[in-house]
Amino acid sequence: MRSLVLGLQFGDEGKGKITDFISHPGSVIVRYNGGTNAGHTVVTDRGTFKFHLLPAGSLRAESIVLGNGMVIDPEALITEISSIRVENKDLKILVSSAANVVTKLHKAIDRAQEEMRGDNKIGTTSHGIGPTYEEKYSRNGIRIEDLADIDKIRKKLKLISTMRRSELENTEYNNPEKIEQLAVELSKYWASIGKYVCRTEIILHEMVTDNREMVFEGGHGTMLDIDFGSYPYVTSSNTISGGVHTGSGVSLRKIQRIIGVVKSYTSRVGEGPFPTELHGKEADLLREAGGEYGTTTGRPRRVGWLDIPLVKYASTLNDIDELSLTKLDVLGTFKTIKICTDYGKNVKNAINVLTGSEKADPSYMEMDSWGTLKEDEIREMVKKGYSSLPDEMRTYIEKVESLSGKPVHIISIGKIRDSTIQKE
Ligand code: IMP
């Protein structure tokens, strides 16, 4: 089976846990977009693992592939590889020679751009993601394969720093010595990562032909897609299902199962429209219960109720087969649970609201809560399966199915790795 797991909201839906759940010791896990701006946490008996570049399934996979659509910070890559080796020492790692390199200069530009935007800032992670994709599309980007050749790095950095003079003006990279230092630093990474670098699309095509068990893992969420998200408050890559083809070289026609992961409430980091956002005490309660602080930046996330118009828009866009619902235990903190069912009769379409050109007047339905669950109760429910979930929780899940028009198959009801249930 070849599956794709992606988020339908603003990222942080709990995709990592779902990838981890459906991957096996023989699986190949592929990432195809973004960089260290993504972040996911997997909690196992041996501790909590946070990944930014490596896919979450790395803990039990046989092979992982970082595709050409990614932007890779080599320093972060080396750190993550050494931490995964402790858990999965035989893991095969393949990195696309065509993926672009995030450098410290691009991080400096990211910060400088945000400052220049002033009140219109996007609220980026400052990890240099946007400027690195700009470099790629201006065709001056440093590709991973270039790290083997210091002269190439030097030449490209010189060109980049000349073209971006005004952006670099108030940064430490406005001087040639710093650029030379950066070139030397970048060239040293090749010794550690060169052995992983190849034309990954060729190997992926062979894996597809061999019918290998494969999971493609989307970074971020649908609403952060550069084309279809809540522009301009988005990331710089295509986060939707179509990103698989351009970001890995594997045709979407080869994917047999597309899973859209939806958190049972909504969260968002950074600026931009958020129709179901909560404020004050209710927001604090949800944020604390859900640990809604950025894995990447530590920033408190904005939080709100589940937004069905958004989920429907994202489900259609990604042509998903099924939904996966996460963090239901967290939602149980509330005595009464709300779901936004529509944006009001005057709204033409959901994306207009999500890009800020139309204003929503959200309608909500209220549902009874299942209350908080203890860890041993969760373990028992996982053992007994879907029918042992509290009635109120099953009613909620089935309501999401009828409102969204999509079946829910995988449900996550707790933090620990073994708190995931297959509905059918
Ligand atoms: P960038 O990707 O660092 O350029 O940030 C652009 C916007 O996307 C900001 O609002 C970030 O907070 C948001 N963002 C990027 N990646 C993620 C993610 O994986 N989860 C949640 N928000 C993200």
3D architecture notes:
There is one protein chain. By secondary structure, this protein is an alpha/beta fold. The chain folds into 3 domains: 2-98 and 196-257, Adenylosuccinate Synthetase, Chain A, domain 1, CATH 3.40.440.10; 100-192, Adenylosuccinate Synthetase, subunit A, domain 2 (Orthogonal Bundle), CATH 1.10.300; 262-422, Alpha-Beta Complex (Adenylosuccinate Synthetase, Chain A, domain 3), CATH 3.90.170. 36% of the residues lie in helices and 20% in strands. The protein has helices at 15-22, 74-87, 104-117, 129-137, 150-163, 165-168, 176-188, 190-193, 200-209, 243-248, 280-290, 308-318, 328-331, 350-354, 375-384, 391-404, and strands at residues 2-7, 28-31, 40-44, 47-51, 63-66, 71-72, 92-96, 100-101, 197-198, 214-221, 257-263, 266-268, 302-304, 306-307, 322-326, 336-342, 363-368, 408-412, 420-422. The chain has a 10-stranded mixed β-sheet with strand order 9-7-5-2-10-1-11-15-18-19, with helices on both faces. It starts with a strand and ends with a strand. The structure holds inosinic acid. Residues 10-12, 37-39, 122-125, 127, 129-130, 219-220, 224, 233, 235-236, 269-270 line the site of inosinic acid (IMP).
